[in-house]
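Appendix B.2, paired examples.
Example (i):
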Amino acid sequence: EKPSYQHSITPVLQYSFSGSFMDFEVIIGFETHVELKTQTKLFCSCAVDYEAPPNSRICPVCTGQPGALPVLNKKAVQFTVKAGLALGCLINRHSRFARKNYFYPDLPKSYQISQYERPFCQDGLLEITGDDGKLYPVGIKRVHLEEDAGKLVHSSSSFESSTHSFVDYNRSSVPLLEIVTDHERNPLRSVQEARIYLEKLRQILRYIEISDCSMEKGQLRCDVNISLRPSGAKAFGHRSEIKNMASFKFIMDALEYEIRRQSEILRSGGEMAQETRLYDEAKRVTLPMRSKEDAPDYRYFPDPDLVEIELDEGFIDRIRKKMPELPDQKIHRLMEEFDVPREEVLILTKEKAVSDYFTTCALSCADRKKLSRWIIKDLFKLLNKASLPMEQCPVRPDHFSALVNLIAKGEVTEKMARTILEEMFEKGVSPESVIESKGLKPIHDSFALEKMVDDVLAENPEALAKIKAGNKKPVDFLIGQVMKKTRGKADPAALTKLIQKKLR
């Protein structure tokens, strides 16, 4: 899906109010929660296992038993710094953890270990690309590390009609990265921008391999903040926060609903309440949940069980030197190095696994443009049909590049190549073995091909008569008949020239 894109700090909404026009600016912010791809939890040695039975990956530490002491996971800190570098953040050498106090059944300690005034990363910038090819900045206020809560499972699919709930603490204390946009410095101003930002953020986090960002597994969730204000106003309006959104589609639907709801309240002279809301997926509306908390409501204070953290420059430099190629860097390199059109490069680089597959193939493939088109058009078709991600593609990169090389040299026709590729995909074999086993070598014998053409012309006198009368459509019919005789082994371009020559 290619979203339309508009970037402007001019008002995006206009309504007639009291005989004049009232214009509103939309301000959108995200608190994106990303579960990190560590083997163990943030403060204990319990395994991170999404398939485990409920409450089977817990211990006294992650369930908050009295006297149990947390020990920080170093890999989670490395992943946090890695994310900060990818998002252009300032990495704070001195940091610490705090207790965020609130009661909820999925929080066994009645507080969450998070970060407050000293996060690991702050003051970053993520550039999103519009349809016009230009880059637009989105401010990143902070990136901090915290522990995830447990998971509530309601007895009914409708939150309002639930009679009881179950709680699974397997997720409790899984390392969680919170990435907060800056509503004062380069905020998001439209639903289109919001979607592009989330897609770009997810892409970057997957490229640096700190999270799989699977929304189905709850590895990427968003709290969405949205407010409106009159055009030109300096003060921000009261915001609504929509909690725990885990679907790009529902996030966009919720934003569109909130823009309509808030604009109607402001247009009628009402005042917005600062509140937390839930999105009802069935009714496609947001519903009030509670008044919106501010930081003082959580009574943050430094966690007494965890020492403050000092990151030395060597630790940060080692992470910086091992940073992988980011999406924008890869887009630029593929365009420059392989001369592939930008539209195709954007498709190839959307997922890291696809871009890695392409670059591996390109090392042994002469025609990179043909390689790109065959991946996007033909290999994607087979993967989609089999419901397989690129990571599970049964066609090895060296086998795929060998097939494209055969096409480029004219040793197999494109029609034959698609038949060969289907067999390669099904059996995981090389193109040469398929050609050998199925007898799919193309016909290069010009005399044999010419004889087949003569036979087809002799067998279809009516088509010849129509062509001589000025109707050129039967030419395609004759080409098809020859291709049928050769079982697709003739080169269509050479065959067309030969038939046209015979018809002169």
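Example (ii):
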Amino acid sequence: MRTLDRKTQEERSAETQGKLLDATISCLITNGYNSITTTKVSRIAKMSQGSIFKHYATKQDLVAAAIAKLYDQLIETYEFAIEFPPPESDKIKLCLTALWALFESPA
């Protein structure tokens, strides 16, 4: 029987990947693609470079996964913003305002 405080290997792996992707997204937003290095990502994630390559074969695979995660987050943010429009609101204006807010965000 699994103890309550011990995570499974799958949970630990997902947590590691999440930290690596978040660190990569941070690098992308802060410095842009050209300045991303696995050294910077591992330092921000507080993990070894080996942990990157255990989960992602190449830096490009890591960046692609980070962009996919960021895209999903942006879609989720947009959908949340337009999910419950106030009654009698201009739905087109609401959608455009929510979309514009995403374009103005650093992400």
